[in-house]
Write a structure and sequence with these properties.
The mean pLDDT is about 85. About 85% of the residues lie in helices and about 0% in strands. By secondary structure, the protein is mainly α. The chain is globular, with a radius of gyration of 21 Å. The chain contains 15 helices and no strands.
Length: about 425
């Protein structure tokens, strides 16, 4: 576990640095309006990519935990056939929606067909690459994930540098570079699984129905989680102005590695949790979760300590010089990130035990609390109180997951054996 965890942590650290570099480069190159559009499109891409992960990849992991006897390669081959077709459909739909919204809002880029095409290519390539990453993780081969992401990073840096050199960097070309890097990385690196073979529409639909039967509660949960993580950007803009939104987003950007560490653990742990659930050993699963919390705490503590020591130099960088609240907000974001990481470990274990419906109920309650607080607290107490509202909803989820849901589901799913 330690070796795989380290590889996954290094991999997510690399992706974090890459996303950070892309964000800083665009902040310093394109207009605020264009950068805001890029952030919105990026968030939409993450949501769509998460949809396939929640519906298809989680279904494969849950099937593994049920011990039905299918080989992982067979399950992943079928899932790959479904995932790629879903990615194509979602990419085209997203492109049409974005084009329509840009025209309706009279955005300066509203009549750019190139933007719609670039976004469609980006969404499709992102989802294909992400499913390949998940396939390697479910096969417990993080070194292949590192190879895939490493090539993606090199191609992105090379393409971005070329655009900067030619003075052609904008939202459209940035999305084009990311799409090309995704596609080339997928095509050049070793195959994760073989295709399921000739597939008919009826077979694909049958597989999709099987995934839906397992993970149908995961998609609404994903949507509520996305709203919970992104609504504050829009509500803050309405209540305090775009400057406050920029302050919150800039300070949160510095803690992106912490979030990506949790994502790395999720990808690495999904197969482990499936095997532990299949074995029906609650003691082993609890030990695994506690060990994961300890390892994650070490990684996060090291990063936050390094950031605290170097914060003056970081805030002196050009893109951050105008963000005067970043230091104060970073303190609150750090508390929020720590709470999120602890909650996330328990949530992933519940997903592995297919507790989608109670997780959805919890997410709806948490989102409702957050939106209610955001509706009036920030207007009275400023930008920092936005993070307080998010911390309140996160505390609700953390206590619900570890104090109620996890003990209940462990007892129901894995028997009454106690450590």
């Amino acid at each position: 576990m330690i070796k795989r965890s380290l590889i996954s942590a290094v991999d997510q650290g690399m992706l974090s640095a890459l996303n950070f570099a892309v964000g800083l480069t665009l902040m310093g190159t394109v207009s605020k309006q264009e950068y805001g559009l890029y952030v919105q499109l990026f968030a939409a891409g993450v949501l769509l990519c998460g949809g396939i992960d929640a519906l298809v990849t989680n279904a494969v992991a849950n099937t593994m935990s049920r011990g039905h006897g299918e080989r992982v390669a067979v399950l992943l081959g079928q899932a790959q056939s479904v995932a790629r077709r879903l990615a194509l459909v979602l990419g085209l739909v997203a492109s049409v929606v974005v084009a329509a919204l840009l025209v309706l809002t009279d955005h300066p880029l509203g009549h750019s067909m190139g933007l719609s095409a670039a976004f469609a290519a980006y969404v499709f390539s992102l989802m294909v690459r992400d499913f390949k990453r998940s396939s390697f993780h479910l096969q417990q081969r993080p070194e292949r994930v590192f190879q895939l992401d490493g090539l993606f990073g090199l191609l992105t840096l090379a393409g971005g540098a070329a655009l900067r050199w030619w003075g052609a960097l904008d939202v459209v070309t940035a999305l084009g570079v990311l799409a090309g890097a995704n596609a080339l990385a997928v095509c050049v690196t070793p195959r994760a699984v073989d295709d399921a073979g000739p597939t008919t529409g009826q077979r694909l639909w049958s597989w999709l129905e099987g995934y839906w039967a397992i993970t149908r509660w995961a998609l609404p949960g994903l949507a509520t989680g996305w709203v919970g993580n992104n609504a504050f950007l829009y509500i803050t803009g309405l209540a305090l102005g775009l400057a406050a939104t920029a302050e919150l987003n800039a300070s949160r950007l510095l803690l992106m590695p912490v979030t990506l560490v949790t994502v790395a653990w999720q990808q690495m742990s999904r197969a482990d949790i499936a095997h532990l659930v299949q074995a029906g050993e609650p003691r082993a699963l609890r030990w695994y979760l506690n060990k994961s919390l300890g390892l994650m705490a070490v990684v996060i503590t090291v990063y936050v300590s390094v950031l605290a020591v170097s914060i003056d130099g970081v805030l002196a960088l050009g893109p951050f010089q105008k963000y005067h609240l970043a230091r104060e907000l970073l303190v609150w974001w750090t508390c929020y990130a720590a709470m999120y990481a602890v909650k996330f470990v328990g949530t992933c274990a519940l997903v592995g035990m297919e507790a989608y419906k109670p997780l959805l109920t919890m997410s709806v309650a948490s989102m409702s609390l957050q939106l209610m607080l955001l509706a009036w607290v920030p207007a009275q107490h400023g930008a920092a109180s936005v993070v307080w509202c998010m911390m309140a909803s996160e505390l609700l989820e953390l206590t619900t997951v570890w104090g109620f849901l996890l003990p209940k589901v462990l007892k129901a799913r894995m028997g009454r054996r106690q450590p």
